[in-house]
């Protein structure tokens, strides 16, 4: 059983009888000599994506859950279930759209670099790469000289994702998108 000061972002623990993915750890050092260092940890329940936040002392123990990270690739979608394949063993792992939540907006056949988080042989969550390349399928026409200003316009992608892009971009262009912040990075 790991102590709070040994936990790392991306780990999985059991907290309040739920499987929780560690999203963020914030260390709060005491202002006085006798105070204990506190670890403010943000969790996300899996499945369900409910956010939990709790503070622990450094020697508080949590129940670790054996987590396996595997390189996976999107195979196909059947109604509300997405199927991913392990790139080494070729095992298929289903996961429902509700569990994926907003991550589903980035899933396409061209997606590379996705990690699957497996607990007891079940896919409980995916980790998207930090950036993805997607092609704009719908946006208003580009404006000449638009690169001189910082104005933006909405752009729609095949998965249903809509983000703000610079006004000089045209329909059919491929762009890089930051998956953590849902924002345009650059042309691809």
Determine the structural class based on helices, strands and strand pairing.
mainly beta
Principal-axis shape equals flat
User: If helices are DSSP runs of H or I spanning 4 or more residues, what is the number of helices?
Assistant: 1
Low-confidence stretches: none
Mean pLDDT: 85
Order of helices and strands: EEEEEEEEHEEEEEEE
- Proportion of residues in helical segments: under 10%
Q: Give the tally of β-strands.
A: 15
* Strand line-up in the sheet with most strands: 4-3-2-1-5
User: In percent, how much strand structure appears in the residues?
Assistant: over 45%
Between the first and last Cα atoms, what is the distance in angstroms?
44 Å
Largest sheet properties: 5 strands, antiparallel
Radius of gyration: 20 Å
Features:
single chain, 188 residues, mainly beta, five-stranded antiparallel beta sheet, 15 strands, 51% strand, flat, Elong-fact-P_C
In short:
Residues 132-187 form the Elongation factor P C-terminal domain. By secondary structure, the protein is mostly beta strands. The protein has one helix and 15 strands, in the order ββββββββαβββββββ.
Description:
By secondary structure, the chain is an all-beta fold. The chain has one helix at 97-100, and strands at 12-15, 18-28, 38-45, 51-57, 63-64, 68-78, 81-86, 92-96, 114-119, 122-127, 131-139, 152-157, 162-166, 174-178, 183-187. Strand 12 and strand 13 form a beta hairpin. It is flat and about 65 Å long. The termini are far apart.
């Amino acid at each position: 059983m790991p102590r709070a000061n040994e936990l790392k972002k991306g780990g999985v623990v059991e907290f309040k009888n739920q499987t929780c993915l560690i999203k963020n750890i914030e260390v709060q050092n005491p202002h006085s000599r006798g105070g204990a260092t506190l670890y403010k940890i943000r969790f996300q329940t899996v499945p369900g994506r409910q956010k939990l936040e709790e503070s622990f002392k450094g020697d508080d123990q949590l129940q670790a859950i054996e987590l396996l990270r595997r390189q996976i690739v999107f195979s196909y979608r059947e109604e509300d279930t997405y199927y991913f394949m392990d790139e080494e063993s070729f095992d298929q792992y289903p996961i429902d759209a509700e569990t994926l939540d907003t991550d589903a907006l980035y899933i396409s056949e061209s997606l590379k670099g996705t990690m699957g988080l497996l607990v007891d042989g079940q896919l409980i969550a995916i980790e998207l790469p930090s950036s993805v390349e997607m092609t704009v399928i719908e946006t208003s026409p580009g404006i000449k000289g638009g690169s001189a200003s910082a104005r933006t316009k909405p752009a729609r992608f095949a998965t249903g994702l809509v983000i703000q892009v610079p006004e000089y971009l045209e329909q059919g262009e491929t762009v890089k998108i930051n998956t953590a912040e849902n924002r345009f990075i650059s042309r691809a």
